[in-house]
Amino acid sequence: MTTTAVSTGVAVRLEEVSRRFGTVQALDGLDLDLAPGELVALLGPSGCGKTTALRILAGLEDADSGRILVGGKDVAGVPVNRRDMGMVFQAYSLFPHLTAAENVEFGLRLRRQSAAARRRRALEMLELVGIGTHAARFPQQLSGGQQQRVALARALAIQPQVLLLDEPLSALDAKVRLQLRDEIRRIQLEVGTTTLFVTHDQEEALALADRVGVMQAGRLEQIGSPEDIYRNPATPFVASFVGLSNRLAGVLGADGVSVLGTPLPVLNASVAPGPVEALVRPESVDLTADPLADARVVAVSFLGPLARVTVSLPDETLVVAQVSSARLADLPPGTAVRVTLLPIPVVVSSPR
Ligand SMILES: Nc1ncnc2c1ncn2[C@@H]1O[C@H](COP(=O)(O)OP(=O)(O)OP(=O)(O)O)[C@@H](O)[C@H]1O
Ligand SMILES: [Mg+2]
């Protein structure tokens, strides 16, 4: 097993950071806190400001206003190469004319280490990311996943205080992506580096992070543990962006929202009583085959241990239910089913 000097992570804080490009408000008062050694995943739709936030943190871009604190110190005016941050971007950004080992050594060279120390460190890092045997290969002799491993090794080699990952897995196929995702988490825990991981893959964010921050239009909409973000979304945007939700008509009253005749607790407060849309997770929907019922199974998708069953209500509303795939035998398309909702809290929004 490789030994890696444990760098104790630092706290990172973005305070009301704003950045405008022409008419686009890329960041609009972004507040974000990372505890030492924490991995926060930033999740959000394309264009919501994720990369801009990372670039400003790294010093590659200036903020119009707001402050960045690393280890409690304002880093305004500190240039990129003095910020002590390792970065990995979406596209493999290796130097094509350097071998894997030379790529990893590159950052160390700027730090004036001896050739022997650099080489030793580079090999140790390549070992850590699982491609120690490929040290002498050039980037074009490596697969996409291997190249991203080299990029990760290069970012970690300098023992950065902060690791910034901007969709480092998005160019990879599903299986390699999963492997490297787990590897990143393992290494991050081992090394203890405070990490900001940008993705627009919600499953990746939920699986990997200590906390997930959901961004919209240059602001943080909600931040919390993966479970919290999934179970207690603060807004309709978070509920519909993270995980699947059915949008079902309901009536909001003093003690919850009534959906398909079932009263459900409500998570968010700022919606006026009366007709609303309730965002109901597929796992909150239960189906029972019943020849007298008036809903019909219209489609079934098999997902391994689980399955999603789409049901059409008499008013033609479609509802997706998640069931154990062991139950599929009883629910073929055309089956008459009774739809019941479990009393799991939901987010409501004004009807569209
Ligand atoms: N250098 C720039 N000049 C002009 N506009 C920019 C520049 N950089 C970013 N923007 C704009 O700022 C907004 C935020 O961009 P950013 O790259 O931060 O989004 P993102 O959340 O990373 O999106 P994606 O998921 O597609 O990578 C976008 O509307 C983008 O077009
Ligand atoms: Mg981006």
TrEMBL record:
Residues 12-242 form the ABC transporter domain. One of its GO terms (molecular function) is ATP hydrolysis activity. Its EC number is 7.6.2.9. This is ABC-type quaternary amine transporter. PANTHER family: SPERMIDINE/PUTRESCINE IMPORT ATP-BINDING PROTEIN POTA, SPERMIDINE_PUTRESCINE IMPORT ATP-BINDING PROTEIN POTA. Keywords: ATP-binding, Nucleotide-binding, Transport. One of its GO terms (cellular component) is ATP-binding cassette (ABC) transporter complex.
